[in-house]
Amino acid sequence: MRHLLLALPFALLPLVAAQAHEHGHDHDHEHAHDSLGAHEHGVASLNAALDGNLLELQLESPAMNLVGFEHAAKSDADKAKVAAAKGELEQPITLFALGSGDCKATEVELKSPLFGDADHDHDHDHHAHEGEHSDIHAHYRFECAKANELKQLDLAELFKRFPATEKIQVQLIGPNGQQGVELTPEQPRLSF
């Protein structure tokens, strides 16, 4: 399954780039192709793969979207914000509205320099950005007893709990093939 998620960004890159052109976004071509890996405040990415009764989700977001800052938490207030965000991210059934498929989280993995992780694995040069940008990576694996009843992925609760998140670039492989869509607080749902 992990191999499926690793291939997902490359398989769906043409879909997302085509969708950006369809919606009339005024991005130059180079930016449209780089946007999947770019650190942009207000924007997060979600890779999703549903295979049989297993659902895997990988959420990547600038820390700014989830805690309101990107520096190391030194004050008690900042530490409380990080702890609260981590607590929310540890409740994926609620964040992704997966109740209809009788899903249980079998793996929850959160990584961020803000959580005290010493080894975070970005694909870009850390030293150039150190102190400037912090991302939060969340990986979830679910076993769904009634996966056939999972009709949609609903991110309304995620947008509600993290209001600085303005849009999420979703790349999905599911029973109906591949999709690449942009979800927003106004349009937070994606059908499998």
How does this structure look, described?
The chain is of the alpha+beta class and 192 residues long. The chain has seven helices and eight strands, in the order H-H-E-E-H-H-H-E-H-E-E-H-E-E-E. A six-stranded mixed β-sheet has the order 3-4-2-1-6-7. A hairpin with a 2-residue loop joins strand 1 and strand 2 (54-62). The model is unreliable at 6-36 and 118-131 (pLDDT under 50).
Number of DSSP helical runs:
7
Order of helices and strands: HHEEHHHEHEEHEEE
Largest sheet descriptor: 6 strands, mixed
Evaluate the radius of gyration: 16 Å
The number of distinct structural domains comes to: 1
What share of the residues lie within helices?
25-40%
Outline: globular
Report mean pLDDT, rounded to a whole number: 79
What is the β-strand count? 8
With strands numbered from the N-terminus, the spatial order across the biggest sheet is: 3-4-2-1-6-7
**Terminal Cα span:** 17 Å
- What percent of residues are in strands? 25-35%
Structural class: alpha+beta
Low-confidence segments: 6-36, 118-131
